[in-house]
Amino acid sequence: MRKLQTQGVHHITLTGADRQSSIDFWEGVLGMPFVFDQPNLDNPREGHLYFDPGDGRLITVFTNEDRKPVHDRTPTDPGCVHHLAFAVSLATFRQVAKRLDARGIRHSGPKDRGFMDSIYFTDPLGLLIELACYRFEPPRGYAHADVMIEAHRLRVARGDYNIQEQHLADAIELLVERSQQSLSEDRSPKNPY
After folding, report:
1. pLDDT value for 68
2. If we measure between CA atoms, which residue out of 136, 32, 39, 155 comes closest to residue 84?
3. Where's the VOC domain (predicted)?
4. Closest CA to 64 of 101, 114, 25, 21
5. Maximum separation of any 2 CA atoms in the chain, in Å
6. Contacts by 37-41, CB closer than 8 A, 24 or more apart
7. Which residue blocks in the chain are alpha helix, DSSP H?
């Protein structure tokens, strides 16, 4: 028996309402360029819209002009999607609450997640959307996941409840020490003062 190794999210497809409400939300609120449009090849009564969430991957939406937005919270039963999270810059994150308020969109306000900050709101169909901003940048050659696994190991070893900024900083230091050579024989902290 062998694994089916994935290499990233290819796309996520959602069931939307009508075409224009989908475009208005995904591009008009979240700024995702509308990059491709064709019929749903499995159901010719539906459209299939494609949006770029900012990393070249795709969010796609099946639309049908007979479906209208329903504002109820989408189900959170086992097997259902709880929420979708999208990355934003710190500059954007600091503007999210104000910009949602200007549109009259209710939101959670900023949430401290230790390793990132988040804010939550629902799309016009009741799907919970999270806009998230990491509190760190990984060292050159590493991904956010590399820092997260090191920070997790440090958190567990120290008996801490959740990842905090000190775990991230120490994880980044460890990764740099492993990957970047130095002419110094002793790379331990020093006090030059």
Report:
1. 83
2. 32
3. 8-134
4. 21
5. 73
6. none
7. 19-26, 90-103, 144-158, 165-179
Q: Which two tokens stand for residue 27?
A: 């591009």
Six-digit token string for 170: 């120490």
The tokens for 173 are: 């230091």
User: Is there a contact between 11 and 56 (Cβ–Cβ < 8 Å)?
Assistant: no
Residue 125: both structure tokens together: 């169909």
CA distance 105 to 123: 9
Which residue bears the tokens 């929420």?
83
Listed residue (92, 97, 113, 101) closest to 165, CA to CA: 113
pLDDT averaged over 10-residue windows placed end to end, the chain, 193 residues: 94 95 96 97 96 96 90 85 96 98 97 97 95 97 97 98 96 95 90 92
31, amino acid identity: G
d(CA 190, CA 178): 19
Report in angstroms the alpha-carbon separations of 70 from 65, 78, 108, 110, 176: 14, 21, 20, 26, 49
Domains and CATH numbers, the chain: 12-69 (3.10.180.10), 70-135 (3.10.180.10), 144-179 (no CATH)
**Structure token pair of residue 85:** 């999270």
| Rg of the chain (C-alpha set) | 21
